[in-house]
Amino acid sequence: MNVVDLNCDLGESFGTYRMGNDKEILDYVTSVNVACGFHAGDPSVMRETVQLALEKGVRIGAHPGLPDLMGFGRRNMNIAPQEAYDIVVYQIGALNGFLQSEGGSMQHVKPHGALYNMAARNEALSLAIAEAIYKVNQELILFGLSGSELIRAGEAVGLRTASEVFADRTYQEDGSLTSRLEKHALLENDEDAAAQAIRMVKEGKVMSQQGSDVALRADTICIHGDGAHALTFAQHVKNSLELSEITVKSFT
After folding, report:
1. Cα–Cα distance, 66 to 82 (Å, whole number)
2. What does it do (predicted)?
3. Phi and psi of 119, rounded to 5°?
4. Cα distances (Å, whole numbers) of residue 84 to 10, 92, 111, 148, 167
5. pLDDT of residue 242
6. In the chain, what are the domain boundaries?
7. CB 165 within 8 A of CB 206
8. Cβ pair 246, 202 in contact under 8 A
9. Which of 141, 5, 127 is nearest to 61 (CA)?
10. What integer pLDDT is reported at residue 228 of this predicted model?
11. Confidence (pLDDT) at 20
């Protein structure tokens, strides 16, 4: 039986700036990654997002990013592994405070944006992130790009890992995501994205921009919550997966 988790990045509003369709998208995903205030989010938004997810029965994870509100955490920063460790511990702790106060628990941690992509290639950085998660709570699941250094680091330190794939992103032949700075980084057509998601789950393959198949493992599929059509996209992907006899459910 094909089973997959469907996750979404949420809680990315802050102050007077509103982003995403958080409440509505929660009806279509099984896990959420909540911004922890560095790349997006603020204390009030974190609390509200935790409350909404708990009401919907959706599993919750921390989404730690680089300290880069202006760039939404998508700009590379030359940080040392120790700095990465510190900011991940800090952000997990911030979200965990809201979870505990609301009677919930944390399922996973998924680094955000540039931190995620940097760690996917950098062994020292990925190990620092994995160790930060492990030392906070050994039961947390590390979400990382399928086949990446981040997944290998999580396994090395003893964490449970979930290999993540992206329905709406294109891939390079080395298994990395196409940079957002390049053309064709995103799949704009819902049908194409759904077909890619189904193939990744059922066949463990994705077609790269270079025209070759890339092998991967699909434990969880990311649905971005900040897109203009995020809600309809989430609906379409979930419905397409289920019509293809793929069960959508969380890990726990």
Report:
1. 13
2. Catalyzes the cleavage of 5-oxoproline to form L-glutamate coupled to the hydrolysis of ATP to ADP and inorganic phosphate.
3. -65, -30
4. 21, 12, 10, 17, 27
5. 97
6. 2-248
7. yes
8. yes
9. 141
10. 63
11. 81
**Whole-angstrom distance between the N-terminal and C-terminal Cα of the chain?**
17
What pLDDT, on a 0 to 100 scale, did the predictor assign at position 226?
66
Cα(25)–Cα(140) distance, integer angstroms = 23
Handedness of CA 76, 77, 81, 84 (dihedral sign): negative
CA atoms of 123 and 229, how far apart (whole Å):
35
- Mutual angle of helices 81-101 and 43-56, in 10-degree steps: 60
CATH T-level assignment (fold) for domain 2-248: TIM Barrel (3.20.20)
Fill in the DSSP letter of residue 214. E
Structure tokens at 31: 């896990």
- Token pair, residue 139, equals 């039961």
Query: Do residues 69 and 22 touch, judged by C-beta distance below 8 A?
Result: no
Decide if 203 contacts 2 (C-beta within 8 A): no
Residues 6+ apart with CB under 8 A from 203: none
Counting as low any pLDDT under 50, the low residues of the chain are: none
CA 150/CA 228 separation, integer angstroms: 29
- Distance between CA atoms of 250 and 135, rounded to whole angstroms? 24
* φ and ψ at residue 212, rounded to 5 degrees: -110, 150
What's the Cα-to-Cα distance from 143 to each of 44, 97, 232, rounded to whole Å? 25, 21, 24
pLDDT at 188: 82
Q: From 148, 158, 108, select the one nearest 126 (Cα to Cα).
A: 148
